[in-house]
Amino acid sequence: MKPSVYFLTVFIVLLLPTAMPHDYSDALRKSILFFEGQRSGRLPIQQRMTWRGNSALNDGENLETDLVGGYYDAGDNVKFHFPMAFTATMLAWSSLEFGSYMSPNDIGHNLVALKWATDYLLKTVSQLPNRIFVQVGEAQPDHDCWERPEDMDTPRTAFALDAPQPASDLAGEIAAALAAASIAFKQSNPRYSRILLDKAVKTFQYADLHRGSYTDNLDVNQAVCPFYCSVNGYKDELLWGAAWLRRATGDDFYLMYLVKNRQVFGADFNYFEFGWDNKVGGVNVLIAKEVFEKNVTALTAYKDTAEKMMCSFLPETPGPHMTYTPGGLLYKRGSTQLQNTAALSFLLLTYADYLSKSSQQLNCGSLKFQPDSLRRIVKRQVDYVLGDNPMKLSYMIGYGDQYPQQVHHRGSSIPSRMVHPNAFGCVQGWSIFSSPNPNPNILVGAVIGGPDVDDTFIGGRTNASETEPTTYINAPFVGIFAYFKSNPEFS
């Protein structure tokens, strides 16, 4: 098939109406509920994912500090602070851009999920300006065992960096998360909002003053890598943190920082990416908002780069293009495919919103597109994830009639304490891991890794790349589901 014919075929697939109706309200509720299954620490009485129990109640003990709480990032029992902070940023951004489409109950639960993360992130930067906490748990011993969080007997070592050791990527992302959350809580909890913003400013100062990657430190590198190494470097997080602080404060210091460092920090390089490691695509879209709304011409270059990214999603435009599977899924290869689909779809929908609110079109060379052209692409992604795909599977656990039953998730796959009060040991758990039986506890709302480039999905608990959920897959989908719930013209 010639490339032009391939692009046309993919574009037609993207524009096809969905083959089945979807309940986006249900998907939204479940996408937020999922975070309760990832909680670490002492669970509240309002806990709805009742098969989970208290866990990791002594975290931080080796460094004589309180690091209890937060989220396990995926199907393991380690708390990696870098992706956790990105998760918080995306939950906050979902609230800010799409909270108006949520019911009071939904926005309330989303803020609860966000606060569970930010309460913990405040602990990670509680000893600034001298120390920032990086991670709790040792990845290799944890991955050598298959045991529910409530039974953990693997080391819960906490890792930290002390000034002047660099941590620009980690601190920059935490600053972004706290700044974004400060806006999200500004009306409902102004005192908490001020605390978040104050700590965001101090965290960004550490990031900018001690430039470099947090994985430059050998001890941290051995603890974090290869799971959450900062492959993309640290400069994008400095822009990301500054962009969120500019939005939260309106301070011209951050405006000048963004103008001065755009090219130096590579905001016009590798701008087709967005996720827990690479923030460049998100930086450009986030800053474009200020150009659309306030015509801040000093930031126009960010908007122009964001527009180039948006054009790449449309196959008939000139220039480089994003890749889609034959079934229409936006595809960028990674350890878990749907993390890319979720994050990039969020940017598409957000940019479409900016265009609509400013009564503008997307300009791609000589071609012009209405904002709905971008929304239709996102709609195709959402419907694909919820079951309108060649496998006829919902990749959200607990949504629809057909979804994978063997999820790569320790707590979900092992009987809960209510059913089996005695602990499962490290070795005993592996017999459950290899079992063909369905997971006894449904991790409702979890969006898992998803299919391959040819739309195939093998599944199975042993196939982590396809069946493992992560918090940073779900967080962008919260805002996306909220939008389509309230815009029936796309249903």
Mean pLDDT: 93
Tell me what the CATH architecture is. Answer: Alpha/alpha barrel
Percentage of residues in strands: under 5%
SS-based class: mainly alpha
Q: In the CATH scheme, what's the topology name?
A: Glycosyltransferase
User: What is the overall silhouette?
Assistant: globular
Distance separating the two termini: 32 Å
Strand/helix succession: HHEHHEHEHHHHHHHEEHEEHHHHH
Strand order of the largest sheet: 1-2-3
Total domains, how many? 1
Number of helices: 18
Largest sheet: 3 strands, antiparallel
Low-pLDDT regions: 1-13
The CATH C-level class name: Mainly Alpha
Q: Please state the CA-atom Rg, rounded to the nearest Å.
A: 21 Å
Task: State the helicity in percent bands.
Answer: 40-55%
DSSP summary, beta strand count: 7
Protein name: Endoglucanase
Family: Belongs to the glycosyl hydrolase 9 (cellulase E) family.
Keywords: Carbohydrate metabolism, Cell wall biogenesis/degradation, Cellulose degradation, Glycosidase, Hydrolase, Polysaccharide degradation, Signal
Catalytic activity: Endohydrolysis of (1->4)-beta-D-glucosidic linkages in cellulose, lichenin and cereal beta-D-glucans
